[in-house]
Design brief:
It is built from four helices and two strands. With 160 residues, it is mainly alpha-helical. The chain folds into two domains: 33 residues; 113 residues, Four Helix Bundle (Hemerythrin (Met), subunit A) (Up-down Bundle), CATH 1.20.120. Helix 2 packs antiparallel against helix 3.
Length: 160
């Protein structure tokens, strides 16, 4: 009888340990399979798309300054957008909410978003001009893959 209880406790312990390992493994693999951001830079993996294209030294010399300027511009615009989001929250949470002020803030936010989109599109076209046809094809495959796998990626470009 004593051995039977001991065997049941060991089986229960084994089942619990297996469940804990399965959950931990699932979360580990789920976190590590996420695609890089389509902003041409992945803060999680610390690389840019252009580093995956097999560029020549001359191409790198041309692209690196463009990427640095691009990320600085986006960082400033994202800071502006964060400030506008906070202002919108303050407007919405206050008493006597003014529809005119809300509409004005919404238009300001739309203007910043439009600027972000224009900068991203111009940067993609600038990068495309430096690449050869096979690199360009690979670049747009990477861009397409990450755009379709992670919603809102162009909005979250740069550091957060």
């Amino acid at each position: 009888m004593k051995n039977r209880w001991m065997a049941m406790i060991l089986v229960l312990s084994l089942a619990m340990n297996t469940a804990v390992l399965a959950v931990a493994g699932y979360h580990y693999f789920d976190r590590n399979r996420r695609p890089p951001a389509a902003t041409l830079h992945s803060p999680e993996r610390d690389y840019h798309f252009y580093e995956k294209l097999g560029l020549t030294p001359a191409q790198l010399e041309e692209i690196v300054p463009m990427a640095n300027t691009f990320h600085k511009s986006l960082k400033g615009l994202h800071s502006d957008m964060e400030a506008k989001k906070s202002a919108m929250i303050n407007l919405l949470s206050g008493k006597n909410v003014s529809p005119a002020k809300i509409e004005g803030m919404r238009k300001e936010m739309a203007t910043v978003q439009d600027s972000i989109q224009k900068i991203v599109i111009a940067h993609v076209l600038d990068i495309k001009d430096v690449l050869n046809s096979s690199q360009s094809k690979r670049f747009f495959e990477l861009l397409s893959k990450s755009m379709h796998q992670e919603p809102g990626i162009l909005i979250r470009a740069g550091e957060q």
